[in-house]
Amino acid sequence: MRSGARALAGVGLVGAGLLAAAPALAQTQDSACADLAGMKLAGLTVTTAEVTTSLAAVSPQLAKESAQPFCRVGGTLRPTADSEIRFELWMPVGSKWNGKFQAVGNGGFFGVLNYRSALGGVKRGYAVMTSDLGHTNAPGASEDATWALGHGAKVVDYAYRGEHSSVVASKALLAKFYGKAADHAYYTGCSAGGIQGLTELLRYPEDFDGYVIGAATPDHVGQELGAMWNTLQASLLFPADALKAPQVTAIHEEVLRQCVGKDGGLPTDRFLTDPRLCRFRVEALACKPGAASETCLNPRQVAIVRAIYAGPRNPRTGAELFSGIMPGSELTWGAYFTGKTNPAKPDRPWGGFMMYMAYGDADYLPGQKYLKFDWDKDVTALRAMQVGGETLDSSWNTRNRDLDKFVAAGGKVIQYHGWDDPNIPPMEAVKFRQSLVDSLVKRRKMSVASATNLVDSYHRLFMIPGMGHCSGGPGPWSIAPAPGQPADGEHDMLTALENWVEKGADPKRLIGAHLSGGAPSAGNPNGGAGAPQKPDMTRPICAFPAAARYTGKGDSADAANYTCVRPAAAKRK
Prior knowledge:
This protein is of the alpha/beta class. It contains 15 helices and 15 strands.
């Protein structure tokens, strides 16, 4: 088996300021860690190599946390003259290592080291790597992209080179420290971290044995274009008709009125179990002639809402350029694309992407040049742009679907996505899974049924009702052990992945829980606020295309009273 990494996402950690007490480390272990400073690897400079005894010295944000001592190695990689990829590898000392390697992803344009997720992995015994992907954000600006202006190589580093380079270097350091390679390697990330995971899987299938990938698409350029499309439609193209908060709330309530109980879920749900079954008619909210209302929609606004659900389209051919978001997601629109004003700010990824990465034009947003974007010619030209010696289409998208060697080596993928995600459309996950099936049908001349069975043997997709982008929402969005729940393969995605890769126990379902507020969960590798809470509702999250159905008996807020049912059209002989 190869080695890989999974980021333990968002477990609430509590403890004293210093690392938990442990037996004195042998001098040889201290020396082995310090010796890594002399590691010789092309393009690598080791900047830190020491056994850590204080998390406060690592980061003030971790000052109240605790863990066993670990060998902390920091390094800088320079695969090109303009590259500066920083990473850290944290390795438990002595018998605390579980024999596995883990890589944790970042989100957005984060140019930071994801210490909190790394600490979560170390607490589980993993040797954990986190990378800044080759850049440092401006202080306090998580979506900052100014670092990309005039630095095309850094754009490529962010797209794929930074993560892979950090993985290769970390494995070499790990093998030297422990005297052996890791038995297994796992990756976990959500949002941009999920995209990093898909990119690793499709470009470097030998890097990891298993992946937990959340809220991802293999078309990263398309994701930026989709985010721009939604913002243009909802806020910027027609400022006088921009959607207002009361209207968005009214749209959401109308979606629930029309669709709840017809979507495979319960008529009492406040979310949609499968939004694809919702035939939402937005014209039901059209303003009646002469009527004044803050919640009805004028004709242009009706068209705007339809365009958001449809996603970006080529105006000449009508072809879909990227998936649209789903009905039910409306209450999160304000965090992404409603309520914006001209000139647009680079506060969401698309603005920084267009101004600093794609066009390299500091006047792109201030000059409102995005208002003249041609969704026919400009899309093709954008994908073909040369940045860092590669086209954006080749560095930011990954079209390979040949995973035969990964599958033959026993590799497994758990992918998840919230049906209410307004940032990366959930249909991108459904389409990616279908693309794996289609590739087998084309490349190996397999029947659709046989190809689907083969994909099932290594890839499981979990579509989470009522979950927004990576976490939160009115549905069973948290898949992490909460008070009163076991830490097993149904309540924790990393455990589910380990059981599948190492024991052959395929995950047919997970148990999602609804928690109030923004408590961290395994679906939120970027962290969150609050301590673990007792869920007020649990429900099975079934492996796609199955969905949870209430048995009609017992508490409808208890996952025990649901079964996983496959749609009739999806059943195979």
